[in-house]
Automatic annotation (TrEMBL):
Location of region: Disordered: 1-22
Superkingdom field: Bacteria
Designated name of the protein: DUF4461 domain-containing protein
Length: 61
């Protein structure tokens, strides 16, 4: 079954700028999804914040 995309070996290597753009878009979408989840589940978000704060307090350098 032929794919619409070329096989991995045939495509040219992506540039650093393309990789950074793709990563920035991914991180923006991730943050947006996290904000949405925090809005629709405030109790879980608060518990996660408290767990994170506890982890940060007990972390040893």
């Amino acid at each position: 079954m032929p794919d619409s995309e070329s096989p991995k070996g045939a495509e040219p290597p992506e540039t650093d700028a393309e990789r950074r753009r793709r990563r920035a878009r991914f991180l923006r979408e991730l943050a947006e999804a996290r904000e949405l989840r925090d809005r629709v589940q405030p109790r879980r978000a608060k518990a996660a914040r408290l767990r994170h704060a506890m982890r940060m307090r007990t972390f040893r350098w």
